[in-house]
Amino acid sequence: MFGSVVAVSDVSLTIAAASFFTLLGPSGSGKTTTLMMVAGFVHPTRGQIAIDGVDVTALPPQKRDLGMVFQSYAVFPHLTVFENVAFPLQVRKIPGGELRRRVGEALELVRLTGYERRLPRQLSGGEQQRVALARALVFQPRVLLMDEPLGALDKKLRAHMQGELKRIQRHLHVTVIYVTHDQEEALTMSDRVAVMRGGRTEQVGTPAELYEAPVSPFVADFVGESNFIEGVVVAASGPGRTLVRTDGGLELWGIASQPLRAGQRVVAAVRPEKLEPTNTPAAGPNCCKGVIEDVVYAGDATRYSVGLGAAGTLTVKVQNRAASRRLSSGESLEVAWDPEDTRIFARAGDDG
Ligand SMILES: Nc1ncnc2c1ncn2[C@@H]1O[C@H](COP(=O)(O)OP(=O)(O)O)[C@@H](O)[C@H]1O
Ligand SMILES: [Mg+2]
Fold first, then answer.
1. Nearest CA to ligand 1 atom 14
2. Does 31 sit in the ligand 1 pocket, CB within 6 Å?
3. On the chain, which terminus has fewer CB atoms closer than 10 Å, C or N?
């Protein structure tokens, strides 16, 4: 708590050793606060933090054996690359020969061998971030904490550094706790991800679990992208296959992760790439007729806005291939999708 502000509550996470774990969420969702509690810079009003089974809740940051990298490079501007990376070893009174060897190894790991005598202002943003990373790793911490470390880099360099971070993490078998608001970065880098919202964890799982089986509309929307279709449950069902009649008069089957009663208001979520334009006339559930209202060419794929009249609009994403005919605005089409690709959620405030 900060004064009367509850920044984070009821967060309970178990992070496997040597794994890459990410806290993902929008700005203000409590990611940094959670990370700062692990680091020891913020003290939880309740609860416990353990590393390797040892309770560290009362330990100051420097006794927790953690490396840290933040978005603002936080390298010392007046120290050379060598001096920056050597700093944590000097604090720990590591003797000269050993110190030089370990700085050399850390710089090799981040591919900055030969940059020892440069000052930070003689480095690019990406190189400065590598210095920060080498400095965080040089004392072989058990856990590496990173808060939006690549946020200041351009897209190409960020993608490159993501690969580098994964390579280093696997090579050192270090446990990483990573913070980002970028869902794509979280999906591509992590073994497991906690999606945070309003100071709580909304869902914790592997990238595939979050993407294929989100537990709430929030996760379905924040991780990737979803079409949302409102309706009511036709017949009571346990978790699993559920039939929904939409407000626009369509019938669709989907997968619910909780029991639902007949007549209950729900929202169905379907990802744009799971919707398929077909030539077969729409009949039965999980298909509909529409008219293309907008076409956006995005290189790898084309995105269509398909108007369904009273039933609203769907976004359909189709991979661009030589064999696929690009459709134009005003064309009619049928769209079909798989019940297994449809998630059904109780509407907030109407969950039984
Ligand atoms: N020092 C502080 N004093 C008061 N409120 C804070 C402080 N730090 C963070 N908060 C609040 O706690 C919540 C979570 O913040 P934060 O952990 O920084 O989120 P994130 O890193 O996900 O953007 C926000 O509502 C933020 O305004
Ligand atoms: Mg933050």
1. 30
2. yes
3. C
Same domain, 83 and 179: yes
Paired tokens of 308: 């369904």
Count of the separate structural domains present in the chain: 2
Together in a domain, 284 and 333? yes
Alpha carbon nearest to ligand 1 atom 7, residue: 2
The owner of tokens 């850390």 is 106
Whole-angstrom distance, CA of residue 89 vs CA of residue 76: 15
Domain that holds residue 313: 226-346
Note whether 184 and 293 are same-domain residues: no
**pLDDT by position in tens, the chain (length 352):** 566 677 788 788 888 989 999 999 999 999 999 999 999 999 888 888 888 888 899 999 988 989 999 877 679 999 999 999 999 999 999 999 999 999 999 999 999 999 999 999 999 988 999 999 999 999 999 899 999 998 888 888 889 889 999 999 999 999 999 999 999 999 999 999 999 999 999 999 999 999 999 999 999 999 999 999 999 999 877 778 999 999 888 899 999 988 999 999 999 999 999 999 987 776 778 999 999 999 999 999 999 999 998 778 999 999 999 877 889 999 999 999 999 999 999 987 654 4
Specify the ligand 1 atom closest to the Cα of 33: 17
Ligand index nearest the alpha carbon of residue 199:
1
Entry pTM: 0.90
Residue among 315, 254, 309 nearest 285 (CA): 254
What is the C-alpha to C-alpha distance for residues 276 and 346, in angstroms, rounded to an integer? 25
